[in-house]
Amino acid sequence: MSQAFTIEQLRPIRSGMTVSRNSKLGEVNNVTYFSMGADTSISQESYDRMTMYIGAAGRGGFILGQEKKLVTMEPDAVLIVPAGTLCGMQTSDGMVYTEIILKKENNMNANVKTNEVFALKNLISYEEGSIANMDVVSNSTMKYVLMAFDEGTGLTPHRAPGNAIVFALEGKATIGYEGKDYELSEGECFRFEKNGLHSVTANGKFKMALLLVLE
């Protein structure tokens, strides 16, 4: 998909329905887009693998554990749920999110807590004249990384060894992809295919998340 897009555009909210769509990014780490209509819910269930949820649009609640702890999910927020933990969802307004079921062996940043919602852009700070990187969670077949670009910085054209999606969290950037430029703003995404030539140039200060699937 050679254009900026939102997850909501890929999986729009439908009245009274819960709908899922496979991202086709990989097979070992299952990445699925979900939309939930207003006043819908998904019953609690658990996976044998750690799961990450990324808010894309709307607002809803995630119901965790036997005690049914309720945490609120909003756009560009993340929730990481340990393996074997019951998790359900409910929304009164409608909600769109990405679900990533990770492989069993993962490395998680010490600054990240499980079963707590956190705002992605608040995890990483700008560094003067620099590009800052922070791995949120990774394993041998995927990485979920935060990047903060100070004004005037960028990544020169390069190729990645897997399919990837960039999530713009703050500010604006120009994405170069296979010889064409695309403008990316907060709340939008851009997909790179494996070995696609791409670059990132910050237009002012810019923060993004990168999901790279190495399969």
What are its keywords?
eight-stranded antiparallel beta sheet; 215 residues; 2% helix; 2 domains; single chain; mainly beta; Jelly Rolls
Question: Can you give a write-up of this model?
Answer:
The radius of gyration is 17 Å and the shape is globular. The chain folds into two domains: 7-119, Jelly Rolls (Sandwich), CATH 2.60.120; 120-213, Jelly Rolls. Strands 10, 12, 13, 14, 15, 16, 17 and 18 form an eight-stranded antiparallel sheet that branches. Strands 1-2-9-4-7-11 form a six-stranded antiparallel sheet. It has a four-stranded antiparallel sheet with strand order 3-8-5-6, with no helix packed on it. The mean pLDDT is 95. The two termini are 19 Å apart. The chain contains one helix and 18 strands. The chain is an all-beta fold and 215 residues long.
Judged by helices, strands and strand pairing, the structural class is: mainly beta
CATH homologous superfamily (4th level) name of the largest domain:
Jelly Rolls
Largest sheet: 8 strands, antiparallel
Amount of beta strand: over 45%
Shape summary: globular
Count of spatially separate domains: 2
The stretches of 5 or more residues where confidence is low (pLDDT under 50) are none
CATH class bucket of the largest domain: Mainly Beta
CATH T-level topology of the largest domain: Jelly Rolls
Query: What is the string of helix and strand elements?
Result: HEEEEEEEEEEEEEEEEEE
CATH architecture of the largest domain: Sandwich
Number of helices: 1
Average pLDDT, rounded to a whole number, is: 95
Cα end-to-end separation: 19 Å
